[in-house]
Design a protein that fits this description.
The chain contains 16 helices and 15 strands. The chain is an alpha/beta fold.
Length: 473
């Protein structure tokens, strides 16, 4: 018997609306009590590890201990960012301009959850919804449906314990988890916050409802040789090995200036990187393991996604049992005929050589033009002018400087980017925002204006003498 997704979603949306109408009357303290309780309950060490183990087992991807660490950083970080911040009623006053700003809820939010971060994302998005007095429906990837349900059930039990309606947070029943169900959710809710691949995000934007989504990641990292190369190697390895590179935020292409290439490859090899040289059988084997049908298409082999470097080497038939990451030299072009140009979702990265910094910038632009425009890049350098140039010229929303990319661009305790599981990529990535989404993106605002003394300037104050003289009659 075919499932009626439209009727099923209509029912859970109705439950969400009923719960949200109750929460709409909560004051700031009530909201803050709920978010504190949920954030604490979901980051109890054994609980966070349980969900990490559950997702690693269910999805067959990643590392349970790293997923636990992700829960600690992202959930606690999300709560720390919202703790003590206003999200109910009057939240800002501009006395000079006579403006008052009032925060209000949106209603029922639909949250599309990726399998790669299926442990922390439902918690972070639920906290965002609770902070803003919205209800939320969590729509997971099929390979995370049971973990998603378990996470939601714990959050719902916390809400019940605090006398709040449990339907403020709902998860799609595992039997209904599907593309069709997610499509219905996007059609029926008031707002969508979508994390996943570009096709899904575009679908969210075309659903007819307002949405916030993220673009495709394909991070480029430049190593210019002016910073500590051992430290740079360590950060890249930590970033690439974390949760077996499930994050779209991890380095996918590493561009090293020619003058530092040998020293850098020595440094990173000593720390556990296996380097497949250009023109060797090993390179061809690894490329074929990642993209079995290349050059016909650029479809990743699902069996290598978020697996260890050693396992990928085994699949490829390459002798590298102790490899932490795999770097594959690429001296060619860009695009489908050069699949290393794109995202790899594994502890594998392309290794490119640049003649100088200008060449590194040119290569970065070419890679992003193929995939990853808008997301983020990294650089290991001691020269601020190079950072400035990247900030001015590269079409991305985030530049990480001397940082492990995947552990930083979605926020961290030693990086100022907001903690988030939804990284906006601007219009470059077909997104409506250029920042890391937070609870503030789930608020409507009412602005109240009161009379103030006129602030209208005279023309002599507003326009320069040169401009006025140029148009004088």
């Amino acid at each position: 018997m075919a499932l009626n997704y439209e009727a099923y979603v209509a029912d859970i949306v109705a439950k969400g609306r009923e719960a949200q109408r109750i929460a709409e009357d909560y004051d700031q303290k009530r909201v803050d009590d709920l978010t504190e309780a949920v954030a604490y309950a979901l980051t109890v060490p054994e609980t966070a590890l349980k969900f990490g183990e559950m997702l690693a087992r269910e999805s067959g991807m990643g590392i349970a201990a790293d997923k636990q660490a992700k829960m600690f950083s992202k959930v606690k970080g999300t709560y720390a960012q919202m703790k003590g911040r206003p999200s109910v009623g009057l939240c800002d006053v501009d006395e000079k301009m006579g403006i008052e700003k009032y925060a209000k809820s949106m209603g029922v939010v639909g949250a599309v959850i990726p399998v790669t971060n299926g442990e922390a994302t439902p918690v972070v998005k639920s906290l965002m919804a609770l902070k803003t007095r919205n209800a939320i429906i969590l729509a997971p990837h099929p390979k995370a449906k049971n973990t998603n349900m378990a996470v939601a059930e714990l959050i719902r039990s916390v809400l019940q314990k605090y006398g709040a309606p449990k339907d403020l947070v709902q998860a799609v029943d595992p039997e209904y988890v599907s593309v069709e169900c997610s499509q219905q959710i996007m059609k029926q809710v008031d707002f969508i916050i979508a994390t996943g691949g570009t096709p899904m995000v575009r679908q969210a934007y075309s659903s007819g409802n307002p949405a916030v989504g993220v673009g495709t990641g394909n991070v480029v990292c430049i190593v210019d040789g002016t910073s500590d190369l051992d430290a740079a190697a360590d950060m890249i390895i930590r970033s690439k090995t974390f949760d077996h590179a499930t994050s779209c935020s991890t380095e996918n292409s590493i561009i090293v200036l020619e003058s530092a290439y040998e020293a850098f490859t020595d440094a990173i090899s000593k720390q556990g990187a296996y380097i497949a040289k250009e023109g060797t059988p090993e390179k061809e084997k690894i490329v074929k393991a990642l993209w079995p049908e290349t050059p016909q298409n650029h479809d990743l082999n699902r069996h290598i996604v978020a697996q260890s470097a050693a396992k990928i080497a085994e699949i490829a038939g390459v002798d590298a049992p102790s490899a932490k990451i795999i770097l594959v030299e690429e001296n060619g072009g860009y695009g489908n005929e050069f699949p290393l140009t794109g995202e790899k979702l594994s502890p594998v990265a392309a290794l490119r050589k640049a003649k100088d910094f200008d060449d590194a910038v040119k290569q970065t632009l070419n890679i992003l033009e193929y995939q990853g425009k808008g997301h983020s890049i990294g650089i290991h350098t001691s020269l601020n002018e190079r950072v400035t140039l990247l900030g001015e010229k590269i079409p991305v929303c985030k530049v990480c400087v001397n940082l492990p990319q995947s552990l930083s661009n979605s926020g961290s305790w030693n990086c100022g980017f907001p903690m988030s599981m939804t990284l906006g990529c601007g219009t470059w990535g077909h997104n409506s925002i250029s920042w890391n989404a937070t609870y503030k993106d789930l608020l409507n605002f009412t602005y109240v204006a009161r009379p103030i003394p006129s602030w209208q300037p005279k023309d002599e104050e507003l326009f320069s003498d040169e401009v006025r003289a140029a148009f004088a009659r």
